[in-house]
Amino acid sequence: MFRCGHAWSRISRKYGILAIFVHNLRGTGGIGLGVGYIAPVSTLVKWFPDRRGFATGLAIMGFGFAAAVASPVMDGLIKSVGTANTFFILGAAYLIIMTLSSLYLEKPPEGWAPEGMKEKAAAGKIKIKQDLAQLTANEAVKTTRFYYLWFMLFINVTCGIAILSAAKPLAQESIGLTTAEAATLVGVLGIFNGLGRLAWASISDYIGRPNTYTIFFVSQIALFLLLPITKEAILFQIMLAVVYTMYGGGFSSIPAFIGDVFGTKQLGAIHGYILTAWAAAGLAGPMFAAWMKDSTGSYASSLTSFAGLFVVALIVSILIRFDMKKLRRQNEANERIAS
After folding, report:
1. What is the Cα–Cα distance from 71 to 20, expressed in whole angstroms?
2. Minimal CA–CA distance to 41: which of 214, 284, 257?
3. Per-residue pLDDT tens over the stretch 217-234
């Protein structure tokens, strides 16, 4: 009995240490993923002052589509060389590719602008929009604008992740799709998630980031209320696809929004702080959807609650407009005094 207990204790210690090691490796991988995401995206904002949304949308679309490209490669490698060797091969490949790419990645010189941009501005052909401020990360977190942006992203991602996790059973409940059909639908909707990252971020260059987020929230209030009562299969899938584009668009528009509001002085650090909303939403969204399912017996009921959250987000998106207008007036007054 003692020997058995002693052996079990050794096994527990051995595999407990292994579990901690694996957990730490996952944590290190998560840190690497975040750094690899923020660094290039935040740099792109500085290189494309006239097309911030398009630049970040293109990069973040690639981030979203990466899983679709990498998954078949990983599956093929696992079948041919095994799981352990797949990690070794991918790790070596990522190390080489990312190291070479990092040599090309740098911030632009001070005052840099695309060719012809300054000349067109001087001739009155275009108007260069000035950032509202140039703040450090520590200064940014002391403003209400920071928390407005954080909360807007949190709600958009919370509701988006929730519907991502519930899309398959929701499609089966609402329009009677089979398990295979619902799985196919979710795969196809992933394309709209990626395309929405580029499309909405590019649109934000023309209509402005505040207007883009207002469109997100107004549209999703209506969509989340209509989805539970929609029984027409085609209409249901179109509505779901629109929600997916706005979920992706929320990610890709936020770096440009940060640049507009806080400037590019420490954009990467501020972007990192704002993205904690993504991490929080990753916990809150699926847990809330699952809790509503357990409480009511239906995923559809949770959508009404998410519509209510979008109402709150809409109010916040209006409040940040007032804050931005106030800051813009202050800047104009300072310019008049200085001149």
Report:
1. 26
2. 257
3. 999 999 989 988 888 888
